[in-house]
Fold:
Amino acid sequence: MAEHFLNLIGEEWAPARSGETFEDRNPARWSELLGAFPRSGPEDMDAAVKTARAAYRVWRATPPPRRGEIVLRAGLLLEERKEELARTMTREMGKVVEEARGDVQEAIDMAFFAAGLGRRPFGEAIPSELPDKFCFTWREPVGVVGIITPWNFPVAVPSWKLFPALMAGNAIVFKPAEDSPLCGQRLVEVLLEAGLPPGVLNLVQGTGEEAGAALVAHPDVSCISFTGSTEVGRQIATECGRSLKRVGLELGGKNAIVVMDDADLELAVDGAVWAAFGTTGQRCTAASRMIVQRGVAADFVDALKQRAEGLRVGDGLQEGVQVGPIVNERQLRRVHGYTAVAREERATVLTGGEVLGEGPLGEGWFYSPTIFTDVRPEMRVAREEIFGPSTSVLVADSLEQALEYANSTIYGLSLSIYTNDVRRAFTAMRELEAGIVYVNAPTIGAEIQLPFGGVKQTGNGHREAGSTAMDEFTEWKSIYVDYSGRLQRAQIDT
Ligand code: NAD
Structure:
């Protein structure tokens, strides 16, 4: 009998009004059911938004340092539960447990970082052009924030949104991905235990089309913070545009590692293996393109192939497994579909390209680490996000051509270059069209104290974390106090 989980609206844990549920299964062994979750709709969302609106009044009046104490306690609780939560994560969405620990650690880091924001400036004092007039700015919360997140970082990504949004004084309705509802629930439980007042954070589970869309469309939601695919992000932006609702979008990527002929090749291959096949390639920052200078292309490809073929695929809870399953059957078909596309486009499937269904892998959604060679920049496998353990190798003749290839997609999240030539490194830092650039490190590895986000169709100009953590969740208010006792006209009484 499956455990039945509930939505949290105010103080009340409740099923969906419709009574319907959806199942949460282990992608490494789909016979294992983690639980049944409410399949919520517009009525559930409406109740959650109303509750959040009421709680907002109290929470926005709570001094930021007091908010910070709660977020800090949440970080400490996450630290205590790190192992348990990491194992839940591996069972729920498949990433190997070592990486799942990293996911929880990122949320801990974010909690500690965000908690400190409560004692940092919320504005600045700015001189007036007139005497006896005092001017300052102040950050204010936006109101009720709707948070919609993907399954691939089921604790870390929500934490980048939840903690800063709470620190800013907003109330929240949170809809986790339908492939990771349990991680979402555990994170909410931690915040409640840390002392968050009822109603400030509401949890509504469900599908994107039903629960997600209802949250986006709700007139009393002031801001939507979304991380997910570019396709869904575009729909959400369109809907938010109708009511001029504030919206922060963190979307897809088609990240690349550029390897120049002067690079430390072993280091570049280490980085390439980690960035292409870590998290089974299911990272928004995964390197799904390798752009290699011709002189070292053969050596690089040989080494990458050998390393990819040596990776151990399996259940992420098992010792020694390096690549876990793909999150679900639909995504497995999509990834495999791209191998067919590569063949149609006359790229070479150098290694991998197979659904792994034998023996202990027979009950999960496993795919072999895959490398495409003879890839040209105009091919679909070089342009579209695959979101699986498949990477394409492109050969470039010069730095200029490599950078042109790197910039030749609609995305702009994370790009990297391996070179020991300082001129090439600085040229790349300037020319690469991405929100995040790495030199002599792979496309993954962001730290929470730096802004995170992308350019072009990876987003809409917002950055999360770092010094920008609260920007998405606050409005600036400019305040002028005239204590001269007379009318002073700006720009006129000079
Ligand atoms: P997805 O877009 O399918 O779903 C993301 C979330 O949106 C889920 O909670 C889903 O239920 C919800 N959703 C779906 N349709 C909706 C709709 N019409 N209205 C409202 N909500 C809706 O993405 P996914 O498969 O969960 O995640 C993978 C994608 O996320 C990849 O494209 C990846 O690059 C991207 N991603 C980006 C970042 C980043 O920071 N840029 C980080 C992680 C993942």
Notes: DSSP finds 13 helices and 23 strands in the chain. The chain has a mean pLDDT of 97.
